[in-house]
Amino acid sequence: MSLSSNFRFAHLADCHIGGWSEDKLKNLSIRGFKEAVEIIIREKLDFLIIAGDLFNTSIPSIDAIKQVALSMRYLKEHDIPIFIVPGSHDYSPSGKTMLDVLENAGLCTNVYKYNEETKRLETTEHILKSGETITFAGICGLAGGLERLKYEELSNKDELENLEGFKIFLFHTLLTELKPQSKDWEKVPSETMSLLPKNFNYYPGGHPHFIYQKSTQDHPLVAYPGPLFPNNFKELEELKHGGFYIINVEQGNIKLNYIPIEMKKTVSIVIDADEKTAEQLESEIKLSLANTEDCIVTVRISGTLKSGKPSEINFKKIFSGSNSYILLKNTSKLKTKEFSEMELKSGTIEEVEDSIIKEGVNQIEIPDLQLNENQELLTNQLMTMLNKEKLDGEKNIDFESRILKDMIEIFTLGEIFNDN
Among 174, 288, 320, 408, who pairs with 190 as Cys (CB 3.0-4.6 Å)? Predict the structure, then answer.
């Protein structure tokens, strides 16, 4: 299982090229991939591994494909091959992936070679400049963790485990043994490490966006490099940047070196809105944006305003006066005092509706048109009437006439309509 020669390679995952909707961040993710490629070439690595989700979708934009292909060709020109598996994002339900196009162009090798009939997983071999051979195998990631079936049906698992030489198994799955012990990850589906074939020297993983590595007797080194570039607001807050691993193999011993890729400095601002007016909050946001020139800035605001509404905060004006590279805000937990004091109702739908009607009926002003004086009954009747659906085969004009007739009866407007 060990080699007499020394070699080095890179392990990337979760690039999600094309994932951001904001053009500036979309461009940064592409630039991040280019920078990683430049480092790989500068370090004269032997090969590159991408453990899934190179793209954010199975049908990426032409521009995304073009930029990635150019970087891949640059690696090829420097005799640095790429070995890859599809992730849950860049693998479609039909089994199609843009990676096949890149592979047919000679830019990479998809090591996920699974025979659906025999349930066999074929291997891919790469000969180092020293003349020694590296054996690759891998299984793709699928939406909903459906790749589990591929592992369970694998008919040649024993054969893979008994292969000689230095072996690398690529995968794109969250492993339970590597899952963080936090509430955010409690309900995230995961699979046990026992699914992976044993006795491979290195298991480059992808899918969960965190940096982690673990060694066991059956699986000597399993590692996640995290995203190459943060893929959402929370990741920008927590990670600040992305990165990848450079792996050094010396006489069969493996050492990981994490290489950060920081395209722009990220500044995360958290503001508590409790007991502040909308005007005070606006001023605080402006002050917090000082010294953020050319930075990615995330602004998270939570709490309950003393007065005013979130809509009264002119974020467009505040942000337009900033010299940051890009500003992103999250106000999902920003509330008004009026909203936060609302009492939540419990019970059946009918009980909740009845409770709300009883509380609000006195606030309803109905003109004196000799209408029904029992407003609670009137409201209930209206809700029942407006909840009616069109009958099968009923024409729109007949449905509208039926509703209008019911409304006239509820409001006792027959005489008024007849008089007119």
Answer: 174
Please tell me whether residues 354 and 232 are part of one structural domain. no
The β-bridge partners of 260 are 243
- The residue among 404 and 335 whose pLDDT is bigger is 335
Q: What is the pLDDT of residues 4-17, one digit of tens each?
A: 679 999 999 999 99
Whether the pLDDT of residue 370 is over 80: the answer is: no
Tell me the β-bridge partners of 301.
Answer: 271
Extract the tokens encoding 386: 């407006």
- Taking each helix axis as running N to C, give the angle between helix 396-410 and helix 375-386, from 0 to 180 degrees, rounded to the nearest 10: 170
Closest residue by Cα to residue 414 from 366, 368, 371: 371
Count the alpha carbons within 13 Å of 109 in the hemisphere toward its beta carbon: 20
pLDDT above 80 (res 392): no
Radius of gyration of the chain (CA): 30
Q: What is the pLDDT of residue 115?
A: 93
pLDDT in tens, 72-130: 999 999 999 999 999 999 877 667 788 989 999 999 999 999 999 999 999 999 999 88
Domain-ending residue, one of 261, 285, 307: 261
Task: Indicate the length of the chain as a whole number.
Answer: 420
Domain that holds residue 64: 7-261
Sequence-ordered alpha helix ranges (H) in 256-306: 278-288
Query: In terms of Cα–Cα distance, which of 66, 40, 64, 49 is closest to 13?
Result: 49
With respect to residue 135, please indicate whether it lies within any of the assigned structural domains: yes
DSSP code per residue over 208-235: SSSEEEE--SSSS-EEEE--SS--SHHH
| pTM for this prediction | 0.78
Closest by CA position to 213, among listed 202, 227, 229, 199: 202
